[in-house]
Structure formats: structure tokens, C-alpha cells
Amino acid sequence: MTKKIRKAVFPVAGLGTRFLPATKAVPKEMLTVVDRPVIQHVVDEARAAGIEHFIFVTGRNKAVIEDHFDIQYELDRTLEERGKAKERAALAGDLPGPGETSFTRQQVPLGLGHAVWCARELVGDEPFALLLPDMLHHGVKPCLKGMIDAHERHGGNLVAVYEVPDSETHQYGICGVEKKNDALAITSMVEKPAKGTSPSNLAISGRYILGPEIFKILETQERGAGGEIQLTDAMITLAKQQDFYAHVFDGAIYDCGMKIGFLLANLNLGLEREDLAPALRAEIARLGA
Asked: Taking a C-beta distance cutoff of 8 angstroms, is the pair 134, 256 a contact?
């Protein structure tokens, strides 16, 4: 019987240099897609999947993320005094419960693998979810929920993937796969394969379910590309000992770490809002877009 996935790790220590000067004082994870910070969208996905404990790996100048997932008493009291019950209830509904959030520091920027390793004591000896906040997954069924359902069926480690054009595979981490019963077993993982050498067009999308054994590997993992401890390198090592499966996400993915992805997320999610869509469509038409 597989262990339940109760904990999720969110690496939020990045500097967000692509969005300077906006991110000089505001963490990139707190930039808003419509009216919710990017990190809130990703935490919403995890909560919808049944996650019980939210672990944030932070860095300097990220305290506002911790504040965001806490009660702001002055604001709460002001909303109550002004009779804004709807807004007050919405804020309360977004908050994880007492004791459901933990924060730990990644003091040095040594890459994603190192950030994951920094969460080892909080995760403990159980499988866990890993969600990259830059990658906003938007679909009818939350990506992580689909992954947890698959994990309950066949266990193993899971990596979410999505199809990209063959001409663009050299820009992504790519998984090679083969059918195994009702699942897609991962046969290889390649970071940015040279043109014409990609094992498939399935790109890694920033959602993972990993066994706790990954921490021991990361502890002694040599630095890879960019002088950083690469999570992909550790997963390749773990794949020699444990099964890895690909979960193909059925929905839209917006890379909010890139300006065009961030703008597209705002546009498309705004067009799905009944209170915003008519005016937004009218403005788009007026601009001749």
C-alpha cells in the first residue's frame, strides 16, 4: 500500500531577476495573476489535491510570503467593521489552518536540488509533492490531484509532463517514456537535449511526487549545469532504484517566470472571469488585437 501524499514543498527562494525592477522589493511569487498572487494559485492547486502541510523554502526578502499565509488582524477587523463579509470570508478561506505551514531558508542559491534538500527535516521519511511556483497549471482537474490519484494506483515517483513542439524540445527537460500497463513509465530524463536527439516531446512541467530517498542522493549530489545542484541529476540516480512515471497534464501551463507567460496567464484567466471578461474583451477589440 502506498503512503498518502500529505506534504508539499514550494521552492520560493529565487531572485526573480527577469522581472526587475518589479521584483526588487516584491518577491516574484507575489506578483498577481488577475487578483491572486502566483504562489496563491499554486497553493490552491495543492489544497485541492488534499495536501495537509505546506512547506516553503524561502530566501532573503521573502517574509511577505509568510505574512500572506497568515491572518492580518488589522485588515480583518477593518473588513468586519465595514460589513465586507464576502471579502473577509474569501481571505479566511485562502488561509491554511494553524500549524499547516512551515518555512525554511535556503541561505545560498545552489539550485533547485539544493532547495529541495533544505526541506528534508520538514518532509521526513515519506513521499512528498514538489510544486514549482513559476509554473501555473490551469485545467479542469488540478495537475497535482491527477498525480496523487495515479500515485495511489501504482505508486512510484511521478513527474508531470506536457507536449511541446518537436522544434522546441532543446529548450526543456524532456522525458523518454514507454507504456507499462495503464501508465507511462519514464525510461530517460534529459535536460535540454541537443536538436534532433530528444527521446520524446514530453517536457517536464514543474510538478513532482518524489520518495524521501531523493534527499540522501541530493546530500552528496555533485554540482551540475550552472554550478548548481540539479534535481534532474538526482532523479536520474533515483530512477536506477525506483520506478518513475510520467503524468501528462491535460490543461494550459503558463510559465509565470517569463514575461510572456505571465502576461498570457493574466489575459486568459481574466477572460474566464464573468465579472471581467466582457470589459476585457471590449478593450482587446478596441486595441485591435
From this structure: yes
**Grid cell 532547495 — which residue?**
115
pTM: 0.92
pLDDT at 195 over 90: no
CA dist 146 and 143 (Å) reads 5
Closest of 62, 60, 34, 56 to residue 43, by C-alpha: 56
DSSP state of 70: S
Q: Which residues sit opposite 252 in a β-bridge?
A: 138
* Least-confidence region, from 129-138, 218-227, 260-269: 218-227
Neighbours of 112 (CB within 10 A): 22
pLDDT of residue 289: 55
Give the Cα separation of 222 and 9 in Å (integer). 22
C-alpha to C-alpha distances, 217 to 58, 88, 117, 182, nearest whole angstrom: 22, 45, 9, 29
Judged by DSSP in three states, 61 sits in coil
Q: What is the pLDDT of residues 56-87, one digit of tens each?
A: 999 888 899 999 999 888 998 999 899 999 98
